[in-house]
Specification:
Chains A, B: Keywords: Metal-binding, Ubl conjugation pathway, Zinc, Zinc-finger. Two copies of one chain form a homodimer. Chain A is of the alpha+beta class. Chain A contains five helices and 15 strands. The N terminus and C terminus of chain A are likely disordered. Chains A and B meet through strand 11 and helix 4 of A and strand 10 and helix 4 of B.
Chain lengths: ~200, ~200
């Protein structure tokens, strides 16, 4: 890695109330979608094509470019629930990384990390994302197909279908209270790779 | 992978009582060490060199050979606490893989997997082990330095310094109640790699 580094947007969800999910089903490109930012209860809705500019302008979510980037989540000690969010621009698309600290079991906060494509579920199926932690002679890698932001990030996390870290592992991978997450996106289907040549 | 497959030795710890740890400190080669098998409370003790034959003969722990093997843990639905154990012979040494199902938080069993070298902590520092799960378009890899069996497997697991899976992830990676864990061992230091040439 010789990646860009960036401190992520970060917000403690107020009073533990996470925004509701309005968008469990896939929508057509022409439909309006609600704000997909999990940080805030936001009344905004718009077309999928303008979600990125909304997230950037209204919620000040940073965007990083490159095939492989490192997302630096600071202040990992903040109490749950807390979200860290960044956008990743890659392969002609924008992805949203969500790192969430949450207490599934009271008194035992865990960290959950997943990537969502700012696009449809069909588009998301064309990609594979990899999250990698690497420190103290330990390495943890998680690879999966991103979900679409039209699906609900809350359900991905409550299903546990993402990178899950308990507090002790998060500390082993942290440096001075910050967690560096290596992110890489690749195309997952042969015909896509061919189409790009 | 085109690995050997083997069903692991597997035992539900009786009444939830795990064997005590007698060997927190490193010992000299000449010292007697207690049985390192976490499955049973076993009164045996002997030299480090005969631990492997003890585990094989008395506890019927299987041994697999090869640079990359797949350990197939069956009956993942068994109630916690349950251990799955296998020995892995590689690079002139024997390693012990321990997969444990345990309820750190009551009602929420998790799976913990780690590798121990049947050797001293100094010898263990020369190696890196990798555990890999790969199924349903998801991949999870854990890489770390093995601990010595002279350290206590219980403390490795209670520290959470190992591969940790919650039940939902374990189900995503399981096939028909069985979890296939890819295992690879490499030497971690340059001078070792050179010494083997």
């Amino acid at each position: 890695y010789a990646p860009a580094r960036c401190t992520a947007a970060q917000t403690s969800a107020e009073q533990g109330v996470l925004p509701p999910c309005h968008h469990h089903e896939a929508v057509h490109d022409s439909q309006l979608v609600p704000c997909t930012c999990p940080l805030f209860s936001c009344p905004w809705e718009g077309h999928l094509e303008v979600v990125v500019s909304h997230l950037r302008q209204t919620h000040r979510i940073n965007i990083l470019q490159g095939a492989e980037i490192v997302f630096l989540a600071t202040d990992m000690h903040l109490p749950a629930p807390t979200d860290w969010i960044i956008m990743h621009s890659c392969l002609g698309h924008q992805f949203l990384l969500v790192l969430r600290k949450q207490e599934k079991y009271e008194g035992h906060p865990q960290f959950f990390a997943t990537m969502m494509l700012i696009g449809t579920p069909t588009q998301a199926d064309n990609f594979t994302y990899r999250l990698e932690l690497n420190r103290n002679q330990r390495r943890l890698k998680w690879e999966a197909t991103p979900r679409s932001v039209l699906e609900c990030v809350d359900s991905v996390i409550s299903d546990g279908d993402c990178l899950v870290l308990n507090t002790s592992l998060a500390q082993l991978f942290s440096d001075n209270g910050s967690l560096a997450i290596g992110i890489a996106i690749t195309t997952s289907k042969v015909h896509n790779a061919e189409a790009e040549m």
